[in-house]
Amino acid sequence: GALSNANALPCDDGDTCTQGDACADGACASGGVPLTCDDGNPCTVDSCLPNGGCQHEPATNVPCDDGDICSQGDTCQAGVCTAGADLICNDGNDCTNDTCDAQAGCTFTANADDCDDGNACTTGDSCLNGSCTFADSIPCDDGNLCTDDACDANIGCIHTNNEQPCADGDTCTV
């Protein structure tokens, strides 16, 4: 008989999950290089079936990132990354407009809205450069010389009786 030499030519071992199959010792041998089935989607479960190739099953309730900083708690729903709850941007300052940018996150922009500086002795409060400022102080002079006039930041004008000498307009009294 004639002697046959085995070769190392490429072949197909019938397993769709291997690559680089080649002849060895007269038979087709698996190349040992697994087929890469990662589709880059975190919302699929990627696998390879020897008789079917790559499979990408949709995942549900798996954490993911939709790429939007303004959504938190994103989860996969039927193979698609779905936004979670909106990020609440609130710096507690009435003199800023609070917004969320998908790339930059929370932004706080100064506004010129009316505001209340919390001081009962001021009037015309409005926002300036992100802070509440007042336009003027309220007048507390009641025109009565027998009272001391002042302003309390919590309650406003106060008029306290005094015992200062005063003229009542009658020349017959002292």
Rg over alpha carbons:
41 Å
Estimate what percentage of residues fall within beta strands: 35-45%
Q: What oligomerization state is this entry in?
A: single chain
What can be said about the biggest beta sheet?
Answer: 2 strands, antiparallel
Mean pLDDT over the full residue set: 89
Helix content: under 10%
Could you say which structural class the secondary elements and strand pairing correspond to? mainly beta
Shape: rod-shaped
Q: How many runs of DSSP E, i.e. beta strands?
A: 18
Strand order of the largest sheet: 1-4
Query: Helix and strand string, N-terminal first?
Result: EEEEEEEEEEEEEEEEEE
What is the overall number of helices? Answer: 0
Uncertain runs are none
Cα-to-Cα separation, first versus last residue: 153 Å
